[in-house]
Design brief:
The structure is a homodimer. Chain A is α+β, with helices and mostly antiparallel strands. Helices cover about 40% and strands about 20% of the residues of chain A. The first copy, chain A, has eight helices and eleven strands. In chain A, strand 4 and strand 5 form a beta hairpin. The structure holds a DNA duplex.
Amino acid sequence: MVYHAEAGAGGVRHNCALGGLRQFAELPEPVRRELEGIARVRSYREGQAVVIDGDKPAFIGCVRQGILRMQKTLADGREHIVGLLVPGDMFGRVFDGPLNFAIEAAADAEICAFSRGPFEAMLERSPELERLVLLNILNELDRARDWMMILANRKVTGRLAGFLLVLCTRFGAIDQPHAGANGAIDVKVPISRADLAHLLGTRPESISRAVHSLADAGMIAIRTPYEFELLDLEGLLAESGEEGAVDLEALEQMMQKPRRDPS
Amino acid sequence: MVYHAEAGAGGVRHNCALGGLRQFAELPEPVRRELEGIARVRSYREGQAVVIDGDKPAFIGCVRQGILRMQKTLADGREHIVGLLVPGDMFGRVFDGPLNFAIEAAADAEICAFSRGPFEAMLERSPELERLVLLNILNELDRARDWMMILANRKVTGRLAGFLLVLCTRFGAIDQPHAGANGAIDVKVPISRADLAHLLGTRPESISRAVHSLADAGMIAIRTPYEFELLDLEGLLAESGEEGAVDLEALEQMMQKPRRDPS
DNA sequence: CGGTATTTTGAGTATCGTCAAGGCCAGTGG
DNA sequence: CCACTGGCCTTGACGATACTCAAAATACCG
């Protein structure tokens, strides 16, 4: 199920690598140009490995499109997902040793890869870039803490509700979930039930039951097994018990919806 | 239960603030001296607030002694622990906005506080310091991922086992748990059952049962409700199902005991 | 030594994990 | 074009685990 990219594979391209990554937009022009110089676009198909467990990756990456998942491979072969990477996220442990998890494409993805050496050299010269990286990591840390709060939920429906909310507050900002007809929000779950179960610390069957339980409660609607509509954000928020971790207002603003907009 | 430090409280002192924090030892002498200049030692008693939820703290902190806990305060007043800070850990969101959680002393603690302004100014001038901070945050990120793996465990005994292992692999290195007579390891749990329950996503009663369950299985011994002896590291590791997240060998090396040595 | 907070224990109920079977969809080959 | 096959999701029934409520025991503090 995991297709390792052969040497040189991964669909390397080379034009306008930074295009569309707005986090780099604020950098001074010369820095941005230099970054372009060491950047390559790589494409991965679903299931392809981006970084092997234990490797010190040869590049620092930034997701342009699609979703990657970080997972630890346990001794007995099982895999444990420790997080998702979505457009805008960076990975690769600047200045540091190997990753202790693998990264692979959860869906077809495109990343922007900066060769490690030159990138680190640039970091030393450009305080703006270094700060950008630092803030990026801080952000990731916050997200990890949010995950912790979600995982600390005692009921599966609560963890699932929290997951869905994070999925559209955080990931949605980039993945553009479009507001549906009546102000509902479409989200696309990027991983299988089994992976989701692993991520939320439960079993696929329980995920399935939780999904349908939320649907029966009218909080979500199931379009396909991988596409839901969030109908009752406040209900989901209450279910997830996370008044703190998920910023509902930001989400509603983002949707720019006069709620209940007719088609 | 939370004693807010009055203005100027927190037991500010001023001598040899960096003493004993070995992470700063590698910095160039002039940088270290300058850091000393902006550093102040603050002391907190158990339960005292170090940073209020939503505050942009006036200082960047580094724990010298004791344990702090990070917690989110929910709308309904409940508090949710999102992590612990132990000696060596830094906190305070350099270059960034307010923390979205509170920090308070879980046990009597001493921190080293750097005024934010001067510290950030130093960061811009000293690449060494900036890198130190960056690595520190990366480290914290790893720890957050380990927490995620622990929390994703389906059984309470598993989460507890993972917690205990992390408590001595990571925190123990500094908190010097001394190896007991037969190679067992003493650990001191720094928080109440209720807090631990919250942290592990369960209830105090279940924590209690899990503790005694591990004790009955011979994996730990209960000295007091807050002090255990870890008798069977491999058993705990298996129970926690974390071949990846917890580095047993490092722990045993640290303890300097031959693994499973027949007495 | 008494009072309070915390931990522990117990019994009953809800939730979840497990095992097994059925359904849906996509890809394959006749 | 259709039947077949394999993977995944879903559903059902039963046992294990964890939560709830209540009460008892223990530790902590003055």
